[in-house]
Each structure stands twice: as structure tokens, then as C-alpha cells.
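step 4 of 6: structure.
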Amino acid sequence: MTALRLTVDGAERHLDVDTRTTLLDALRERLEVTSPKKGCDHGQCGSCTVLLDGRRSLSCLTLAVAQDGAEVVTAAGLGSPDALHPVQQAFLDHDGYQCGYCTPGQVCSAVGMLAEAAQGHPSHATDDLEADPELTDAEVRERMSGNLCRCGAYAGILAAVQQAAGAARAEERA
Amino acid sequence: MRELAYVRATSPDEAVAAVAGDPQARFLGGGTNLVDHLKLGIATPGTLVDVSRLALAEVEGTADGLRVGAGVRNSDLAAHPVVRRDFPVLARSLLAGASGQIRNQATTAGNLLQRTRCVYFQDASTPCNKREPGSGCSAVGGHDRYNAVLGASEACVTVHPSDLAVGLAVLDAEVVVLGPDGERRLPYDELHRLPGHHPEHDTTLAHGELVTAVELRRSPVARRSTYEKVRERASYAFALVSVAAGLELADDGTVSDVRVAWGGVAHKPWRARVVEDALRGEPLEEERVRDVVAEELRDATTTTGTAGKPAMLAGVTARALTRLAAPGPQVEEAGR
């Protein structure tokens, strides 16, 4: 067992873990933080996505011991029922889910993706690698391709992410 | 999953000593491939030596190019302004691979050293010479859609899964490797190997050798380069085939230099030297590209699942090169 310190959704947490424990299992099974979901557990579905030191990451593909000292933000830590994060509100506004199982991962992924785009990161869908990317629908689809939705709520997810992207741009201009 | 010791290395030398001295030890970088293998039971190390916090995560300018630290994350490398301007094939190949989340976690060296996605390699209940030498190859006569068409052996018919590895193959890259006896450099083309009788070895690295950096030289073909990928869905899938290409045109419009490498074709990125040699000094014409691709593929072996690969390679190689040759923003940038 290895002693570990994590900041999870703003709270400092201490735990002892077996070295083989993934960050996802440490969060869900040891810390009872059940917002990130276990879908495939092989890095193919994105439902375990969290913000790890500020960047969207798959918590199923990293060992908890390797993240000692890290700051983890899950979808549950982004906002509260009374004060939803703009991305959470956008998913509600546009029905960006059906069963909801992939939603916490979708929300974290969208938040991380919007930050990447704001920093000028290109994607596979970007024509001009040297220009600041514009978040067209094709760009959003490509950048969110690591999050699968078995209910097929992609049309709502796309609309939600576009609403949140628009809100983020308006805030930038203000 | 067997019991696992975890060590966080504080220097590259310490990491190399820890792994070189223990046949059961492995380096741990971003973990996106290795952690999955631990779960699948197809990697069973006794000790993981974590190199992810070593000071190997910088992209630095050199006199004639870039030095990319082994620990630079794929997303950071693809977003680097000099990579986007001077080595577009590098950015394009990185962005064609995996997902936004995985690119945030995966490292340069880890990407190059990732293992095959052959379904039999990843299924511990089936024979696989790469996973268990001498056990046989289930992919011969099995699920064959992702199999090699060039350079395969009776022992192994799989391909290298990395997009970045193919992109680097058209650049003048060198791999910097730290071993127990110090540092050595090898030309990028000598990093990966064809399977032969030893498919268990993906690369020419010895146990305990640590890739610390990849160095790139600027060149006109690097500046005018691109990457195209054919896959079964629009995003987040491994290549059926892929093409990395770089082009330099003379003032009269003929090809003064050209580089072509293919992914999804062989156990290592396949540098299409027959294609390159044939096109140099000629005007670039689509039909001619298709013809010389066919020459490169003269010894190709296809099966039902891979029967479409030669046509895909001809089409996508011709498209990549003709797009690079077309006047447009890329040309203006290349001349700037």
C-alpha cells in the first residue's frame, strides 16, 4: 500500500492505495466520488474523463500512485445544483444526454476542450494549422470524439457544447 | 494482475539503472498503453519505474531544428507553434491519433513505443508470437483487416499502430537514447524493426534503454509536409492505412525532393523509397504517383481483409502529394 494525497473537487484527500489501483477506482471505490463513470475501463469510451491538473484526462488509464499530489476536478466539482457550470447548464438546455451515464465525462471533456481551443490548440479538423481555430461543428465533433454516447445524444451534445463555446467567447470579449 | 512495485525516478540515470538491473522492471510514462496492458494481463512487470516527472518534457530550439523531450505530451507537441509552422506532418500525425484526453496523457516516447493493437496480441487467451514467442500467430487466417501487407514474417503479420511514428519517418529525425553505458543516438529509421523471427521485439532498444529525446532538422520537405489517414470511422480509430509525405519543388515545378512513409502497412513505419526515387526530378502527376506506388507494392502480400490496402495507398498517396504540390496557402508559407 502506498500513501497518496489528492485534491478532489477542491477538498484535500489522503488515502492508502494498492499500486495497481487506477485513479478511477481510487475515486469511485475508495473516496466515493462517483461522478466519473466506468464505461469500458480501457480508454475507449471517455466516461471516466476528469480534469487532471486542469487537463481532460482518462482516469481509467492512469495509476493513482502516479498522480500523488494531483488536483482532480470531476463534473460534480465544476458546479453545484444551485450554480451550474455553463457547460452543465448547456447540456440541460439542449438535452445533451438520455440515460446520463456518459454525461459527467462529456461535461469534463467539453470544459477541457474549450480551454484547449481558447489556447489555440489545433485539431485533426483544422484546415490552417497556424490560424487560431474556429469552433465549427466539425471541429467540435472531432475534438469531442473521445467521448462516446450509446444513447446517441450527439445532436444535443453538439448544440450544448456550441452554446457553452459561445458563452465563453462572449465572456472573453466582455 | 500480479503485485507491482512502484518507484518514482528522480533522474534519467536512476531510471535507467533501476530498469536495466531488473528484467521484470518497466518504464512508466503516460501509461495510456501500459496501464491497459496491466489490466489485460498481457504485461506483467514486477516493478514500474515512473519517468513521467523527469525533466524530459521540454521542446527546445536547436541550431538547425527542434529537440523534443521524450516526456512532451502529444497535445503539447501538436500545438507547439514551431511544429505547426516547420513540421506540419508532425502536428497532423499527432492530431490524427487517439482522442483529446489521450493526447493530453500520452508522451512522445510512449507513443513511439506503444505496442500493436492486433486483437490477438491483446487477448491473453490466444496464441501470439509477439506476446509469447513460439506460441504461434492467430492473425494468420484470423481477423486480418489490420494486418501488414509488406515486410511481415511467418511469425508475425501485425502493423505498428502509431500515427506519430509514421509522421516522423519523413523527417530527418534522430532518437536520443540513454543506457547503462551512457547516451547514444540512432537514426529514426533504425528505431523500429521488421518482425523476422523475433516479433517480441518492436524496436532495436535494449532492456533498460530510455528514449530521452527526438531531434528534428528543419528542411524544405519538412516545411511542406502533411499526413493523411484512412480509417473505419471519422475519428478516434487506428489507421487502415496512412501516408506521411513531404515535398520540395524546383523552380521549374519538378520534384527536387520527396519523402513518403506509410502506416498500417508493416511492423514498422514503411518508408516508400521506391516511390521517392522514382518521383525525384519529375513533374508531379497523379497517374505517375499511382504507378510508382504499385511498384513499391510489387512484393505486397494481401489477404481478404487487406485486399483493399494497395488501392487505398495509391489513392491517399496521390492525394497527399498532389495537395502538397498545388499552389495555395501552403506554398506561400513555404516560401516565406
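step 5 of 6: annotate
 - The interface with chain A takes residues 1, 3-6, 28, 30-32, 35-36, 38-40, 48, 50, 52, 75, 78-79, 81, 84-85, 88, 91-92, 95-96, 98-102, 104-105, 234-236, 329, 333 of chain B (CB under 8 Å).
 - The longest strand of chain B covers residues 241-249.
step 6 of 6: archive
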